[in-house]
From TrEMBL:
<feature type="transmembrane region" description="Helical">
    <location>
        <begin position="7"/>
        <end position="30"/>
    </location>
</feature>
<dbReference type="InterPro" id="IPR000515">
    <property type="entry name" value="MetI-like"/>
</dbReference>
<feature type="domain" description="ABC transmembrane type-1">
    <location>
        <begin position="69"/>
        <end position="259"/>
    </location>
</feature>
<comment type="similarity">
    <text>Belongs to the binding-protein-dependent transport system permease family.</text>
</comment>
<dbReference type="Pfam" id="PF12911">
    <property type="entry name" value="OppC_N"/>
</dbReference>
<feature type="transmembrane region" description="Helical">
    <location>
        <begin position="189"/>
        <end position="215"/>
    </location>
</feature>
<dbReference type="InterPro" id="IPR025966">
    <property type="entry name" value="OppC_N"/>
</dbReference>
<dbReference type="InterPro" id="IPR035906">
    <property type="entry name" value="MetI-like_sf"/>
</dbReference>
<keyword id="KW-1133">Transmembrane helix</keyword>
<feature type="transmembrane region" description="Helical">
    <location>
        <begin position="71"/>
        <end position="92"/>
    </location>
</feature>
<keyword id="KW-0813">Transport</keyword>
<feature type="transmembrane region" description="Helical">
    <location>
        <begin position="132"/>
        <end position="151"/>
    </location>
</feature>
<dbReference type="Pfam" id="PF00528">
    <property type="entry name" value="BPD_transp_1"/>
</dbReference>
<protein>
    <submittedName>
        <fullName>ABC transporter permease</fullName>
    </submittedName>
</protein>
<dbReference type="InterPro" id="IPR050366">
    <property type="entry name" value="BP-dependent_transpt_permease"/>
</dbReference>
<dbReference type="GO" id="GO:0055085">
    <property type="term" value="P:transmembrane transport"/>
</dbReference>
<keyword id="KW-0472">Membrane</keyword>
Amino acid sequence: MGRKLGVVGIIAAVVLAVIVLLATLAPWIAPYDPDYPDLFAALSGPSADHLLGADALGRDLFTRLLYGARITLLGPTLVILIATVVGTLLALIASWNRGAVDTVISWILDVLFSVPGIVFALIAVAIFGPDLMTVVIGLSIGYIPYVARVVRGAALRERGMPYVQAAWLQGQSGVGISLRQILPNVQPIVVAQAVSSLGFAVIDLAAVSFLGLGVQPPTADLGLMVKSGFDSVLRGQPLEAISAGLAIVLIVWSITVIGDRLASNTRSIR
């Protein structure tokens, strides 16, 4: 794995692992309740009691950063998981059946591909109201074609391989061949595409939260922290916006680097 990622990729993996570990252990290492207000500490700077200071309501920024990272990682992960499962299944169905089935699925994917994922999230919010799962489902729909189109191309190449023809002559069903033969061979491409898309999902989810249409206060979320941090900047406390923004940058950078390395290795194998 180290050779696949390279030096920069390993650094990115370590950064991401540290962030995931801190977010996972937030209930045990965070010094305060993320939603507990202390008006006496409002907009205070870094101190022994508050490592990064406090926000306008006196909530500890370090604590909210840890809890905010959990949602910032969990939401996009759900988006990519749903999109990858649905997109891969659609790709396998289209690549095996071809003809009218492939044409219809490809047309649907083209339509979805023409609309940015964040637009689907906004439509979902307009229909069902602002909520994390609403945004996740909306973004998932938008990310399905990114996975399906790549996997379909790879599956079509595999479908013409001798081992697939041999399995078909042995009497195996199309479903069995797709799941037991083709899917394992395109799995590296599926993983690389999923990781590459994850960084974009982090940005989209943070953008929706920044607009106030995703995670709702007082829940800690990095996108919300950047938004609320703007007002704090005017009051002389820039650390909320800076720390949350930097955390988003580090998460997206590390995921993007890892995804690029995996994609490069996948292309070299092919």
